[in-house]
């Protein structure tokens, strides 16, 4: 298949996107447009110089820019516009269902009300269901560089809104700087979320060791692992992931841009798939990493020589792994 045929083959497969940070869909031109609309000063002269800054050496070098970019989000309309733009792109890529992560603490810490964040995300998601036929839900993600007490406080702030958004807010997650912020730090808040009936995911084994993946499963009762590519370093964990079919939401272009792998040809996605793990393909922060979900599938298929059957399997895994 040439690239065009490959793209249209993958586009036509019904897919779910399970690892997507909505703040990571803010394209440089939208950052500039929102900065102007909200009178926020940016430390970049123009869109091109912002785009040129997207040269990352590791997760933290990306996170610094990503949190700075999110500062342009102020109003309900801003959260709506960002989410609507993402849903249109996802629908065009053949995504039929999206589980969208957001970082409430990134916004509440700047004085944006949690009500504003939920209202903007939700109106776009409901519109996406009606007008694009794409279903979606929210993953309320705790920032792991902050304390567990702060995670509890944010959760308490948001819980009164749960009734209003119980069709959308199904899950909680854990993201931000992995190394030095192990799963055990959030054991109590995840246990509380489980009691409240939330589904659970956690980033683990992106930069952190395989033991963080195991601890996310055992200590946080995570039902899916975001990234998880370093699981391969622990054969016992690999056996468990296969036996229990615990989904890994892998993000190949993210791994490339954040130097988790030196080259897409060296990515272990195909090996993980061939060992029978429930691997899925996702875009993570597409505005920063150079591609949406279809770009991730195509680049990975070409770099690793994935067969049609393997592409069908990846898409089917994503549909099976949705909450
Ligand atoms: O890839 C990621 N890892 C951890 N935190 C994140 N927040 C946005 N993207 C990421
Ligand atoms: Zn992520």
TrEMBL record:
Chain positions recorded as substrate binding sites: 285
InterPro entries, per database record: A_deaminase_dom (IPR001365), ADE (IPR028892), Ado/ade_deaminase (IPR006330), Metal_Hydrolase (IPR032466)
Pfam families membership: A_deaminase (PF00962)
Cofactors, names only: Zn(2+)
Protein residues bound to Zn(2+): 19, 21, 203, 284
Residue numbers marked as site, Important for catalytic activity: 227
Keywords of the record: Hydrolase, Metal-binding, Nucleotide metabolism, Zinc
Any GO CC annotation of this UniProt entry: cytosol
GO molecular function: adenine deaminase activity; zinc ion binding
Single biological process term from Gene Ontology: adenine catabolic process
NCBIfam families noted in UniProt: aden_deam, PRK09358.1-6
Function recorded in the entry: Catalyzes the hydrolytic deamination of adenine to hypoxanthine. Plays an important role in the purine salvage pathway and in nitrogen catabolism.
Assigned protein family: Belongs to the metallo-dependent hydrolases superfamily. Adenosine and AMP deaminases family. Adenine deaminase type 2 subfamily.
Protein name: Adenine deaminase
Organism whose genome encodes this protein: Advenella faeciporci
């Amino acid at each position: 298949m040439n690239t065009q045929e490959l793209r249209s083959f993958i586009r036509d497969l019904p897919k779910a996107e399970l690892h997507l940070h909505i703040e990571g869909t803010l394209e440089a031109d939208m950052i500039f447009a929102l900065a102007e609309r909200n009178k926020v000063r940016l430390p970049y002269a123009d869109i091109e110089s912002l785009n040129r800054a997207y040269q990352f050496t590791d997760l933290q070098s990306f996170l610094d820019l990503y949190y700075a970019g999110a500062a342009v989000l102020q109003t309900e309309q801003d959260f709506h516009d960002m989410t609507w733009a993402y849903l249109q792109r996802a629908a065009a890529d053949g995504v039929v269902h999206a589980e969208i992560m957001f970082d409430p603490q990134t916004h509440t810490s700047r004085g944006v009300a949690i009500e504003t964040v939920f209202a903007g995300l939700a109106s776009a998601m409901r519109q996406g269901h009606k007008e694009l036929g794409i279903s979606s839900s929210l993953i309320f993600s705790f920032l792991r560089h902050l304390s567990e007490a702060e995670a509890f406080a944010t959760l308490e702030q948001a819980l009164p809104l749960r009734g209003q958004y119980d069709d959308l807010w199904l899950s909680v997650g854990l993201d931000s700087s992995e190394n030095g912020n192990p799963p055990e730090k959030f054991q109590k808040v995840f246990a509380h979320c489980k009691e409240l009936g939330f589904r659970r995911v956690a980033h683990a084994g992106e930069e952190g060791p395989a033991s963080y993946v195991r601890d996310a499963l055992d200590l946080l009762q995570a039902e899916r692992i975001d990234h998880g590519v370093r699981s391969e370093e622990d054969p016992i964990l690999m056996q468990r992931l296969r036996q229990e079919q615990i989904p890994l939401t892998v993000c190949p272009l993210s791994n490339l841009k954040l130097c988790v792998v030196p080259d897409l040809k060296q990515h272990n996605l195909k090996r993980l798939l061939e060992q029978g793990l429930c691997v899925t393909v996702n875009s993570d922060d597409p505005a920063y990493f150079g591609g949406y979900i279809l770009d991730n599938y195509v680049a990975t298929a070409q770099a690793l020589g994935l067969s049609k059957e393997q592409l069908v399997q990846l898409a089917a895994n994503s549909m099976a792994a949705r909450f």
